[in-house]
Design a protein that fits this description.
Elements: E1 3-4, E2 13-16, E3 19-26, E4 29-36, E5 39-41, E6 45-52, E7 55-62, E8 66-71, E9 84-87, E10 94-98, H1 99-109, H2 113-123, H3 143-158, H4 173-183, H5 196-199
Parallel strand pairs: 8-9
Antiparallel strand pairs: 1-2, 2-5, 3-4, 6-7, 7-8, 9-10
């Protein structure tokens, strides 16, 4: 977690770390459930608030992230006025509280997985972009991936019939499959592979 322009009191921007619910190791791969991606907070307002009789913290407010407390302590008492509490005492920053994490935990522990699946699909609305269009060096989708995504979207606008996407080795079929799932907000995705080596 890094901040810029941090005088005695005041932040111009704060780089917020991703809000990660779980990280699990599967063989050589790590599955990470990211509830909120890393972002840059640009405060529209900031103030000091008393979180205990002897302790004050900085409360930053922004349009996108709501009210975020930034503290240099490793623990923090609950604070009803903040949607998130970020500790800078850890390398890279760590969320001590985050409403999106709390909400997702509640959904995962709830009785209706269909509602969670619908909430996940709704969270993808207007979140997908064809980043990298025209410039393969910027870390976005590669040219074959963008071509496949446009072809799939075009095919599905004509109807729901089956289709096969053929891409050469090394062009990013896995990322294309995941991009289709998000961009088209698929309800379910079935991944079939011909060998255990590919599955693992």
């Amino acid at each position: 977690m890094s901040t810029s322009s941090q005088p005695e009191f005041g932040f111009s921007t704060v780089n917020l770390p991703a809000a990660v619910l779980t990280e699990r190791l599967f063989g050589i791969a790590t599955l990470t459930h990211v509830v909120s991606s890393a972002q840059t907070l640009i405060p529209t307002a900031q103030m000091e608030i008393a979180v205990s009789p002897r302790r004050k913290e900085t409360l930053l407010t922004s349009r996108d992230q709501g009210a975020v407390i930034v503290t240099d302590k490793r623990t923090h008492p609950p604070c009803d006025g903040a949607s998130a509490i970020l500790s800078t005492a850890y390398d890279g920053g760590r969320w001590l509280k985050h409403n999106a994490l709390d909400r997702t935990r509640g959904q995962l522990e709830g009785p209706d997985p269909t509602a969670l699946r619908q909430a996940v699909r709704e969270s993808w609305i207007n979140q997908f972009s064809y980043k990298g269009d025209g410039d393969d060096s910027c870390g976005g989708l590669r040219t074959p991936q963008r071509g496949a995504l446009h072809a799939i979207a075009s095919h599905w606008t004509l109807g729901g019939s089956l289709a096969t996407v053929v891409m050469p080795t090394g062009t990013g079929k896995t990322e294309t499959m995941l991009s289709v799932m998000v961009s088209q907000r698929c309800e379910c995705l079935l991944v079939v592979v011909p060998s255990r080596a590919l599955r693992d």
